[in-house]
UniProtKB/TrEMBL annotation, chain A:
The keyword Protein biosynthesis applies. This is Translation initiation factor eIF2B subunit alpha. GO terms for molecular function: guanyl-nucleotide exchange factor activity; translation initiation factor activity. Keywords: Cytoplasm, Initiation factor, Protein biosynthesis. GO terms for cellular component: cytosol; eukaryotic translation initiation factor 2B complex. It holds the Pfam family IF-2B. The keyword Cytoplasm applies.
Automatic annotation (TrEMBL), chain B:
Residues 33-78, 133-251 are annotated as: Disordered. One of its GO terms (cellular component) is cytosol. Belongs to the eIF-2B alpha/beta/delta subunits family. It comes from the Eukaryota. It is found in: Cytoplasm, Cytosol. GO terms for molecular function: translation initiation factor activity. Keywords: Cytoplasm, Initiation factor, Protein biosynthesis. This is Translation initiation factor eIF2B subunit delta.
């Protein structure tokens, strides 16, 4: 089963959220053991992949290899894997190479349809890499070299995106402020880490982030940096909102309306913050910009994950297992991206310019 | 009204004041000097018999109407000198409106000639009504007083001039072989003049005469561009006169014109069509295909943005096919002039839609880009294929793309609501049905056009399950709706959707019920203009159809409405839906939020299609 997307044999469970669970879930409790027995073990380095039709090179292998770095976002792993496709390709014409690349990106996208950033990053990669004007005029080898160069550059940009965002958002964190964060987002953590390094005095409220309790992990990390942290259960958001100066969330995907798709609970935090006039800042890399336009919550392809309530649930009772929700743009204040600090409406402008 | 006015001065971007508040005039001010000085003379002919004459002193004889008329007159005076469109209530109830003072920038006060008589008086009235207003407006009131004083000084001079002009007019009138406008204007005035005093008549006739003079003077200059501005201000008489002299279609202005919409053409309906049909064989300059399309617009046989645009382009195609360059002229110049004359003919039949305007822009830019060295037949074929391509790429392919995108937003079990009849929405619904999606359609319709019935028939024929209701019931039906699909005549760059009247109402109700509103509009209908309300640019339909209820002989209370002078019927054709109520716009470039319309407009221009 390793290497194959869980979407292959169990379409119910979202691979994206499984990976997140493996990387950021709290490992100490017995809850994880339960969760692990409920889900399948996380795909580690794979050997026997058969999803890819390529004879001697598999994108999925490459992708999984990159994916194992907990510090590397899934999308960046995908970008690295696609770059590897180009360099290891044996195609002799530009057309062949493009078709190969297209196949690889399709395989990647099909591997986990629930991951928005994976799809978005593959699409963006294709746009960025193949959209070079000089391609037709050069001979194949130099064109290929150029493609690899562009691919590496894109990978580099994506990798550095988090640092850029960290720098951009420092102006928004002022001394003595209280920040509410939801779940574990590597970008948000980067932002807070940098702020702590810059000797800013601030307090962080971490939500628990049920069911995978990613908030516990974040509070743990922040405590190591000597940042004052308070853990808040997910249902206490409105109760604590009075003390909060700003809300910081990450995003699984930024959609065309300028809204975000993120871990379950983001929408309600944004609603509470809006009604109390607190700013909601989103930190998201630009490779998460996706060509989706959900109109409401049900308009998303559901990404499911197991929810553990600690007690057996009667079989007649239904459980809402969706892992994410959609926050419309009117509840967001600003987006911190590597393209700059954007208002939600600019997202769509950027997307139109990318894809038009 | 007062309170709202002052709150407008303190700009609060959060409060969106739709409908009642006109923005600073978006129309570039391009009056000819003569037009500028003369336009204030065009006091709206008093529509009401004088009941409140006792309000006015003897020295101001021309004021014979209710206070509402005067305030409008003031606003028009203002319009011409301060570029500020007057906010006035949409309802027809005669509510007195306090006007802000005319903030004349560079234009000297003396531009206000005879109208100052009216202005001075209405200011007096306004001041009488003002004390309700808070302290903040005190300065304003004072300013107004000063202004009115200034104007009173001018009034005597103006009266003298009016007298002089009246004499000229008497001479001119004998010579004039029947300019329709002057005839109607004077005849309309005769009635009210009976009640008023003699000088009143003089003022009016002089107005007609002087406007004729002004028109003659400036028309020399304007002869070249013989297409009336697509958003011509119809309360600017000199321009109207000019346009009228060139006109092919014989149009009489309706007598009971709606005050708030005086800047829009308001003609008597019903008379043009037989008139134009009779003229069929006398029309040299207009190509028969264009003529046919014009007649179809006039009779309403062709309606809907896409249909009208395609019909027009095809007519132009025919005209280009039959076109030969006259000796001693170049194709580029002569054909452009020719197309312009066709366009002005079509405008007379029915005001252009934004889509048609964009298509004309495309065609003209194509003509001007023709290489000079190309032979005539080559140019003609290339133009024809350009038109063909425009129709195919920008309309047909765009619709296909829209259908493909929008269908993804329809899920099983949905209840879709649509208003009126939009070709794009119809295609979407039919395609979704063909894909086997299980959904229900609510077709909302309204009087007097009942365009929803056409859509309903086509949907029912294809086997969709439909509900048909009128817009009165929209708030009842909305709670079971999951998506609202709307068509649009145009999308403006602030995201405002300009569409058939009633669309805004449906969108607002949907918004209130948290139902997503999806607007389907091809990108060639996007326009870089900004509009905040439905007043400054709109089209007025036949007011008669509002008064008549088909199949109900007993509802005849309005049968003789045109004889009632204090009644005006308003039949608006379009309205503007603010972008707040639109969740998504589906175009051929993808699904975009209304905030991204400027991006599409910009990208669209970059394709060098237009310029």
């Amino acid at each position: 089963m390793e290497g194959e997307g869980p979407s292959m044999e169990n379409p119910k469970i979202s691979a994206y959220y499984q990976t997140r669970l493996a990387h950021f879930g709290v490992v100490s409790t017995e809850w994880l053991a339960q969760a692990q027995s409920a889900t399948k073990p996380i795909p580690s380095s794979s050997t026997d992949t058969s999803t890819d039709k390529d004879a001697n090179f598999s994108v999925i292998d490459e992708f999984n290899r990159w994916r194992n770095h907990p510090d590397l976002a899934e999308a960046v792993a995908a970008i690295r894997a696609l770059a590897a496709v180009i360099s290891s390709s044996k195609a002799s014409t530009m057309m062949q190479l493009e078709i190969e690349l297209k196949n690889a990106s399709d395989t990647l996208k099909a591997w986990d349809t629930t991951s928005i950033s994976l799809t978005a990053a593959s699409d963006l990669f294709m746009r960025y890499v193949t959209r070079t004007s000089a391609l037709e005029f050069e001979d194949f080898n130099s064109a290929k070299a150029r493609l690899i160069e562009r691919a590496d550059k894109f990978g580099e940009i994506s990798y550095k995106a988090r640092k850029v965002i960290g720098m951009l958002s420092q102006d928004f964190i002022f001394d003595g402020c209280t920040i509410l964060v939801h779940g574990f987002s590597r970008v948000v953590f980067e932002v807070l880490k940098l702020a702590a390094h810059n000797k800013k005095h601030f307090r962080v409220f971490c939500t628990e982030g049920r069911p995978d309790r990613t908030g516990l992990r974040l509070s743990n990390e922040l405590a190591k940096l000597d940042v004052p942290v308070k853990l808040v259960i997910d249902s206490a958001v409105a109760y604590t909102m009075d003390d909060v100066d700003m809300v910081f969330v990450g995003a699984d995907g930024v959609v065309e309306s300028g809204g975000i798709i993120n871990m379950m609970g983001t929408y309600q935090i944004a609603l509470v913050a809006k009604s109390m006039n607190k700013p909601v800042y989103v930190a998201a890399e630009s490779y998460k910009f996706a060509r989706h336009y959900p109109l409401d919550q049900k308009d998303l392809a559901p990404a499911l994950r197991p929810v553990d309530f600690g007690v057996p649930i009667p079989s007649k009772v239904e459980v809402e297992c969706s892992a994410r929700d959609y926050t419309p743009p009117q509840y967001l204040t600003l987006l911190f991206t590597d393209l700059g600090v954007l208002t939600p409406s600019v997202v769509s402008d950027e997307l139109i310019q990318l894809y038009l | 009204m007062d309170a709202r006015r002052s709150s407008r001065a303190v700009i609060d971007p959060k409060i969106r004041m739709v409908g009642f508040f006109a923005p600073p005039a978006p129309i570039p001010f391009e009056f000819s000097p003569s037009g500028n000085s003369l336009s204030p003379v065009m006091i709206p002919p008093p529509l009401h018999s004088s009941e409140n004459l006792e309000l006015h002193s003897q020295s101001q004889p021309s004021v014979t109407s209710t206070s509402r008329d005067e305030t409008i007159a003031v606003s028009r005076g203002q319009n011409s000198c301060s570029e500020e469109i007057f906010p006035a209530p949409m309802s027809l109830s005669p509510s007195p409106v306090a006007s802000t003072l005319p903030r004349c920038g560079g234009i000297p006060m003396c531009n206000l000639t005879t109208v100052s008589v009216v202005n001075a008086d209405s200011f007096a009235i306004d001041e009488r009504e003002k004390p309700i207003k808070g302290g903040g407006s005190a300065v304003e009131v004072k300013d107004e007083a000063v202004n009115s004083k200034q104007k009173k000084d001018k009034s005597s001079k103006a009266e003298r001039r009016a007298l002089q002009e009246a004499k000229d007019a008497a001479k001119a009138a004998t010579k004039a072989e029947g300019n329709t406008a002057s005839r109607t204007a004077t005849s309309a005035n005769v009635k009210s003049a009976k009640a008023a005093k003699p000088p009143h008549k003089d003022v009016n006739t002089s107005a007609v005469a002087s406007e004729k003079k002004g028109g003659d003077r400036s028309s020399e200059k304007d002869r070249k561009k013989d297409v009336p501005h697509p958003r011509m201000q119809y309360d600017d008489k000199s321009r109207v006169e000019k346009a009228k002299r060139r006109a092919v279609v014989n149009q009489t202005e309706s007598r009971n014109r709606v005050e708030l919409f005086r800047h829009l053409p308001q003609y008597e309906h019903g008379s043009q069509l037989p008139d134009l049909e009779a003229k069929f064989f006398q029309l040299g300059p207009v190509h028969p295909s264009v003529y046919k399309v014009g007649l179809q617009y006039l009779s309403g046989d062709i309606s809907g943005g896409n249909a009208r645009c395609i019909a027009m382009l095809q007519a132009f195609q025919d005209a280009i096919k039959d076109y030969t360059v006259p000796r001693g002229k170049t194709l580029v110049r002569d054909l452009t002039a020719k197309i312009s004359s066709y366009v002005s003919f079509l405008i007379e039949c029915r005001p252009l839609s934004v889509s048609m305007g964009n298509a004309i822009r495309f065609l003209k830019s194509r003509i001007s880009q023709l290489p000079r060295t190309q032979s005539e037949s080559e140019s003609k074929t290339s133009l024809q294929s350009d038109i063909e391509r425009f129709i195919y790429e920008k309309i047909i392919l765009a619709d296909k793309m829209i259908v493909e995108l929008a269908v993804t937003k329809i899920r099983d079990g949905d209840v879709l609501l649509t208003y009126g009849s939009s070709s794009a929405v119809e295609m979407i619904l039919l395609h979704a049905h063909k894909l086997g999606k299980q959904f229900r359609v609510v077709v909302v319709d309204s009087r007097p056009s009942h365009r929803g019935k056409i859509l309903l028939r086509r949907l029912v024929e294809e086997g969709l399950s439909c509900t048909y209701t009128h817009i009165n019931a929209v708030s009842y039906i909305m709670h079971e709706v999951t998506r609202v699909f709307l068509g649009a005549s145009s999308v403006l760059s602030n995201g405002t959707v300009y569409s058939g009247v009633g669309t805004a109402c449906v969108a607002m109700v949907a918004h209130a019920f948290h139902v997503p509103v999806i607007v389907c509009c091809e990108a060639f209908k996007f326009h870089e203009r900004v509009q905040l309300d439905s007043i400054c640019s709109n089209e007025l339909g036949d007011p008669d159809v509002v008064s008549k209820v088909s199949g109900r002989q007993d509802v005849n209370h309005l049968d003789a409405w045109s004889n009632t002078e204090n009644l005006q019927l308003l039949n608006l054709v379009y309205d503007a839906t603010p972008s707040d109520y639109v969740s998504m716009i589906v175009t051929d470039y993808g699904m975009i939020p209304p905030t991204s319309v400027p991006v599409v407009v910009r990208e669209y221009n970059r394709e060098h299609v237009w310029t």
